[in-house]
């Protein structure tokens, strides 16, 4: 009976046939060996710290009961992330499905796609020219205050004479 194509995963199969380890050789590259070692070290360390907290909790430290639960949760999270990365790498890059051909009336497609991140546009700002004879009194006082603060860098705002 052939497998159901909707649920059948052929990523681990190779030309040598199903059930062989030939499809898993990519797990033994230097980068993956480092990931495996890091996972084992972290899980062992987190479980060891959890056991240490259990012994402290048994000795009367009530706060250690929470930590005794927390460290194994951290170890489980490391295993989860490692397993997810293995599955993600095993699937390989996703194939994008080509869009259906458009009609000739739709026009030509653009030559290059719009980039996802655009460079910022630098714009020089020119201060607005004040209208002749219509200067705001409060604005003029505030500008004098700011220029006094700029001229007296060590002074506090309470020292302003105006």
TrEMBL record:
Sequence ranges of Low complexity compositional bias: 102-121
UniProt keywords, alphabetically: Membrane, Transmembrane, Transmembrane helix
Segments of this protein annotated with the region Disordered: 91-121
Keyword set includes Transmembrane helix: yes
Domain of life: Bacteria
Transmembrane segments: 32-52, 64-83
Name of protein: DNA-binding transcriptional regulator of glucitol operon
Organism: Micromonospora eburnea
